[in-house]
């Protein structure tokens, strides 16, 4: 039985509170056009907060409710993606909080600090952090430790953030198109990276899609689905 895909007519990317955190939005647009064949892309700067956080926990119900007050939310067959500078967690089945770089919903939400703090840094980084926190000098030593591991994780105002954002945008799009945002291939841009090293590999060192996802995108560009 042939797969049925939900192809959006347009993509709306919402820049919450005029984010200027090293993200090149025109580069994101070109990436989407070149890879997904969708040319109707709007970058919308929001004048108010849409992503609602209770403490540090994402309130998805309130966020969706707030989003529906926007005039753009009423348009049909649109993939909506919000980019925010808010950090948030969700709770797993055991009520343990996890920082999330992305939440797939309507709209999907990508968190810039979630990209930095969500996927785990090298284990040695946390050994240093625990050691210096225990003796109360972590804030003094943090920059020194970061320098020691420079390049091994995505940091705030990182020049690589736009390239990494392309992967999370792709995941949000595949969630909309197929219902499955992830790939098991570590070389694919939509691999679900739990470690910074895997995130850097899939988005920077590889920066490609696997054969399966390439095939879907080629069909989209040719509108053969």
Describe the protein in words.
With 225 residues, the chain is α/β, with parallel strands linked by helices. The protein folds into 2 domains: 10-119 and 154-222, Collagenase (Catalytic Domain), CATH 3.40.390.10; 120-153, no CATH class. Helices cover 40% and strands 16% of the residues. The protein contains 8 helices and 9 strands. The protein has a 5-stranded mixed beta sheet with strand order 2-1-5-9-8. Strands 3-4 form a two-stranded antiparallel sheet. Helix 4 (123-134) runs antiparallel to helix 5 and helix 6 crosses helix 7. The radius of gyration is 18 Å and the shape is globular. The mean pLDDT is 93.
Explain the layout of strands and helices.
Layout: E1 10-16, H1 25-36, E2 41-46, E3 53-54, E4 57-58, H2 60-67, E5 78-84, E6 89-91, E7 97-99, E8 102-103, E9 108-111, H3 112-117, H4 123-134, H5 138-148, H6 161-178, H7 196-206, H8 211-222
Parallel strand pairs: 1-2, 1-5, 5-9
Antiparallel strand pairs: 3-4, 6-7, 8-9
Helix pairs in contact: 1-6, 4-5, 6-7
Keywords:
8 helices; 225 residues; single chain; alpha/beta; 16% strand; 2 domains; Collagenase (Catalytic Domain)
Radius of gyration, CA atoms, in whole angstroms: 18 Å
Q: Kindly state the mean pLDDT as a whole number?
A: 93
Q: What's the number of helices? A: 8
CATH class of the largest domain: Alpha Beta
Rounded to the nearest angstrom, the distance between the terminal CA atoms is 13 Å
Helix and strand content put the structural class at alpha/beta
Percent in strands: 15-25%
The CATH topology of the largest domain comes to Collagenase (Catalytic Domain)
CATH superfamily name of the largest domain? Collagenase (Catalytic Domain)
Per CATH, the architecture of the largest domain is: 3-Layer(aba) Sandwich
How would a crystallographer describe the biggest sheet? Answer: 5 strands, mixed
- The quaternary organization reads as single chain
Shape: globular
| Total count of strands | 9
The proportion of residues forming helix, as a percent range, comes to 40-55%
The parts where pLDDT drops under 50 for at least 5 residues are none
What count of structural domains?
2
Strand order of the largest sheet: 2-1-5-9-8
What sequence of helices (H) and strands (E) makes up the elements? EHEEEHEEEEEHHHHHH
């Amino acid at each position: 039985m042939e797969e049925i895909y939900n192809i959006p007519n347009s993509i709306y990317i919402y820049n919450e509170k005029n984010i200027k955190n090293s993200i090149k939005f025109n580069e994101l647009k070109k990436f989407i056009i070149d890879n997904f064949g969708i040319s109707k892309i709007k970058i919308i700067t929001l004048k108010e907060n849409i992503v609602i956080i209770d403490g540090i926990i994402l309130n998805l119900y309130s966020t969706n409710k707030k989003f529906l007050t926007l005039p753009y939310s009423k348009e049909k067959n649109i993939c909506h993606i919000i980019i925010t500078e808010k950090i948030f967690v969700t709770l797993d089945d055991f009520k343990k909080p996890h920082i999330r770089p992305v939440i797939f919903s309507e709209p999907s939400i990508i968190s810039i600090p979630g990209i930095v703090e969500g996927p785990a840094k090298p284990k040695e980084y946390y050994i240093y952090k625990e050691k210096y926190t225990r003796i109360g000098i972590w804030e003094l030593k943090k920059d020194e430790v970061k320098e020691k591991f420079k390049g091994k994780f995505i940091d705030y105002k990182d020049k690589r953030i736009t390239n990494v954002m392309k992967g999370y945008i792709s995941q949000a799009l595949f969630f909309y198109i197929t219902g499955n945002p992830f790939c098991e291939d570590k070389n694919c841009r939509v691999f679900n990276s739990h470690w910074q090293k895997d995130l850097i590999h899939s988005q920077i060192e590889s920066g490609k899609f696997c054969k399966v996802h390439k095939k879907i995108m080629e069909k989209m560009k040719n509108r053969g689905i």
